[in-house]
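agent: user wants the structure for Uracil-DNA glycosylase-like domain-containing protein from marine sediment metagenome. delegating to structure tool.
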Amino acid sequence: MKLVSLYGPDRRLAIEREEPLDVNPNCELCDLYNSARNVCLNADGEPGGALLIGEAPGKNEDISKRPFVGRVGNYLRGLVAKSWDGPVAFDNGVRCYPGREPPSVASIKACRGYLAQTIEEVQPKRVIALGGKAAHSLLGRKTKIMSVRRGYAWLWNDGAQPVPVFLVPHPSAALRNRFVRQEFEADLEWALTCDEPALPPWDEEVCVVETEADAMLANAELRAAKWISFDYETAGRQFDGEFTALVVGLCAYGSNRPWVWDHVSLENPATLAVLQRLLADPTVAKVGQYVKYDMLSTRCALGTVVNNIHGDTRLWRKLMDPEADAKLYVMQELVGMGGSKDEVTAALAKGMRAVNKALKDGPAHEGPTLLDGMPPAIDAAIRLGGDPKRYQYSFLPWATLVRYVALDAVSTARLSEKFEAELAVEEPGLPRIWNKIVRPCISALERVENWGIAMDADAIRHVQTHFGAKVEESRQRLAAYGNFNPNSPKQLGEFLYTKLGLPVSKLTKTGNASTDKEALEAIRGSHPVVDDVLAWRKYGKLKGTYADGLYDAIRGDGRIHGDVKPDGARSGRLSMSDPNLQNIPTDKEADGKMIRDCFIAPPDHLLLSCDF
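agent: tool returned. relaying tokens verbatim.
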């Protein structure tokens, strides 16, 4: 087997990559020096203990030249004194008062060297980032702080004892809302008193399957676990002919060692068969991040049905906190593995530039494919006009792709352990809801999506042509009225209300005359141009949103396979996207009937419409 380091060579946070800067009252690294009373404020406190980092000085701090001295600061210092009896220091990620506006990214980057100097001088035992901007100063990446409350990261500390960085909301909101105050005070107490969390698996290696013996070794280890996590990285759209599984990553419960099947082992019948049996086995429980996608990828790429879904990190998270952002790269902060997408983001941008250049060069491009090692089916699809973004993960270097899927598998396993333990604690009834409703729903929706719905491609092309002609007809009629752009609310408003003197029925929030549908419907009949604008908009939407959108959504099997989301609506109802079939026009009007008639049933079948 091949072994690849799970983490890239540089494990440091952004703050550790900065050259420390001494405090400079004449600093002009960003534009805040123009308005601040005092430039580049210093840290405050004692070294060797807890270091609390705020976002930026407030008005009181700007006057006093000390961080956290106003109403919010005194509140925070009092809370810290209750929970922490060691040395404590305070600082801000941005050193100058930014006024009423939140600190900009430019200011955060400019001040990072000063914060690096504070960390070097204080040598903290733990760091607490108060708010999303403070976290950005330390981590170098934006975080949705309310979605990663009680998350953490690590100062690598040059290989010495790593220092935990705990993520906590900013205290300012706590003084305005007693419910927020209770949560904040509990979060801060946790950050000051909790045991150090488990370190990331920095030194772990990814085991890449090469032979059948490797596959059997992975199989034995994974089958022995309580459950396994699995994750795919793919190229293309599911159910299209060029859809490709690039890599599959798996990790056992309680383990940090991931196993990966790459494109070579996925094309080897002997190694592939081991993976197929493992994923299909109903005695092996599986977890994933939005696992329905990975189940469908298994069907499309491996021809295998995944059985025994035990958990889904995204849906577990949404069940406990419906307002949380449940994307994996966001939730990875909760288990100390944030930033795993950084290497991939840079590599994707580089790969996209290379592919676009190769496409631009055309016949002058050297090499049989747009990128070395690109699967021929994907190469052909892009050359024939396919959107390169659909295939972007095939542009990644092999080791980067392997690391990425492995980190996703490991972090999904860690999150699954965390969420499964928290589910019953959050609310006693949640495990029953999960097991009786949500978990069975995953497999049911996967089967619904796999089946899809058939479309009459010829009919939808006819609808495109029909609505396209209607749009052009309306455009020509509008052009006859004068020189204005109906897409521009400003130009349309000036034409309707200033030039023609039509009555204003509604104002926008900024006090201008509105040209939205409600406003125009209210003055319909006052001038023929109003009817023509409404017709132009109507047929433009029918063509663009429905006719064009539905035609583009037809997959290689002639069917539409939309994404049915069990967590897509705040109300808890199902929602659908890619495309959304919930808002297809009704057949009460001829235009809506034309679109609905494009949905067809297979021979000897009928379409059945149900509601409850």
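agent: one observation worth passing along. The chain has three domains: 6-193, 205-340+400-450, 455-600.
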